[in-house]
Amino acid sequence: MGKLKSIPCSWCGKLVKRYESKIGEHVFCCGNCRSKFISKKTNPVSYKRHPHLSKYNKITNPSKMTEEIKAKLRWKRFGTGQHKSYPKLYGRHIHRIVAEAVLGRKLKRGEVVHHIDGNRLNNRPENLLVLPNQAEHAKLHGLLNRGDAL
Q1: Is 136 exposed, middle or buried (0-12, 13-18, 19+ CB in 10 A)?
Q2: What is the Cα–Cα distance from 131 to 24, expressed in whole angstroms?
Q3: Distance between CA atoms of residues 42 and 35, nearest Å
Q4: Does the global pTM surpass 0.70?
Q5: Residue 87 — φ and ψ, nearest 5°?
Q6: Which distant-in-sequence residues (6+ apart) come within 8 Å of 149 by Cβ?
Q7: Element (H, E) at 58
Q8: Residue 100 CA: distances (Å) to CA of 95, 97, 117, 124, 129
Q9: pLDDT confidence of 36, banded at 50, 70, 90?
Q10: Which distant-in-sequence residues (6+ apart) come within 8 Å of 10 by Cβ?
Q11: What are the tens digits of pLDDT across the range 85-143?
């Protein structure tokens, strides 16, 4: 076999022994360091996005996620959860879809939809209130708990 070399981990810097033939562009001491290195959240500087893959996937498999397949998957999974979250339609919370329809626009990043009666299943337009951010939502809940609001 080849010669063993000590080389630093590309994430944490810990020395790792590798055969010369196994040394690539990056070397990691463990899977955790590799995960952190390729994560956009923990390593935004070295994170690589490959936009060509989306185009490639559409070309090579145009029928992968058609609306028909999305509907089929949705109905297959429908009712299988623990019902601890808000109901969704195609991966989007229904109360947000309803609020967008009422407003006539997409919700802005950070906007929060509040259920006035507290029932997360009641998605009627008159039961939904759009707040500018989570801080305002928390403030509203603080007032509701004291009995000062609405």
Answers
A1: middle
A2: 50
A3: 9
A4: no
A5: -65, 145
A6: 140, 143
A7: helix 52-60
A8: 9, 5, 19, 12, 11
A9: very high
A10: 26, 27, 28, 33, 37
A11: 788 888 899 999 999 999 999 999 999 999 999 888 899 999 999 999 999 999 999 99
Angle at 75 between CA 74 and CA 80, to 5 degrees: 90
DSSP state of 62: T
Structure tokens at 12: 């944490």
Say what the pLDDT of residue 63 is.
73
For 11, counting Cβ atoms within 10 Å of its Cβ (0-12 exposed, 13-18 middle, 19+ buried), the class is: buried
Q: What is the pLDDT of residue 124?
A: 96
CA angle at 113 for the pair 135 and 75, rounded to the nearest 5°: 135
At which residue do the structure tokens 């080389």 appear? 7
Measured CA distances, 33 to 10, 115, 124, 134 (Å): 8, 42, 47, 33
Distance separating the N- and C-terminal Cα atoms of the chain: 76
Q: What is the CA radius of gyration of the chain?
A: 24
